Amino acid sequence: MYRERPSRMTGAVVWTRTPSGPAPQPVLPDGCMDLLWSDGRLLVAGPDTGAHPVRTPDATWAGIRFFPGTAPTLLGVPAHELRDRRVELADLWPADRVRRLRARVEAAPDPAAGLEAAALDRAAATGPPDPLIPRLVSALAAGRPVGAVADGTGLGARGLHRRSLAVFGYGPKTLAGILRLQRALAMARAGVPYAEAAARAGYADQAHLARDVRRLTGGPLGRLLARPG
User: Fold this and answer.
1) Cα–Cα–Cα angle for 228, 50, 63, nearest 5°?
2) What is the rounded distance in angstroms from the CA atom of residue 216 to the CA atom of residue 203?
3) DSSP-derived secondary structure for 184-221
4) Rounded CA gap, 27 and 124, in Å?
5) Domains of the chain from N-terminus onward
6) 33-36, Cβ contacts within 8 angstroms, sequence gap of 24 or more
7) Angle at which helices 172-189 and 194-201 pack, to 10 degrees?
8) Do strands 13-17 and 41-45 pair parallel, antiparallel, or not at all (unpaired)?
């Protein structure tokens, strides 16, 4: 069973998954990165470009999911280095820092609360987030053309692409497509008819949405909405 709640960290979500109920759906690309905990292990889930299968459905997991573009500063690693990967935190941080975080999570009332508290402290230590990141995400999520976003931010096309690779893990066009898919899925889950969800999310028609769903997730839209992940 999957549960989530808003984090005290702006834009983040704290979640848990326990081995009960139906088999979990694959994790779909959403532009986010996660700090994960399971059975004493600390891992980082990089930004996905496609559906990622849940390979350990019988394990209990806790995590904090970071708003697109915010995790690389906290972790000290460019997002593109973690794209489509699940990496042990010990491969990214010094061993003593990982041991301290593991001890903190184990001492917390629950692992998710421990991860959240550690992320809040890390955010305070690294300083305020780059205000450009939410502007980029908002513009791309709203369906603005990439060229207009590049001009509006003053980065230019090449600068926007470089910045996007570092903070999102992929270029702005890929992120825009992923955010568009998530908009359509959210509406479809809320009961909006597929054709209307496609139009409101910025697709040409329902067939366009269906093609994008299959390209990014490997399956049909109906299967994704059959049950919660």
Assistant:
1) 55
2) 14
3) HHHHHHTT--HHHHHHHHT-SSHHHHHHHHHHHHSS-H
4) 29
5) 2-126 (no CATH), 132-224 (1.10.10.60)
6) 33/65, 33/66, 33/71, 33/72, 33/75, 33/79, 33/82, 33/169, 34/63, 34/64, 34/65, 34/66, 35/63, 35/64, 35/66, 35/71, 35/75, 35/89, 35/115, 35/119, 36/61, 36/62, 36/63, 36/86
7) 150
8) unpaired
The first and second tokens of residue 138, run together, are: 């908002």
* Of 167 and 1, the one with more pLDDT: 167
Q: Per-residue pLDDT tens for 120-166?
A: 999 999 988 889 999 999 999 998 999 999 999 999 999 999 999 99
Contacts of residue 183, Cβ cutoff 8 Å, sequence gap at least 6: 141, 200, 201, 202
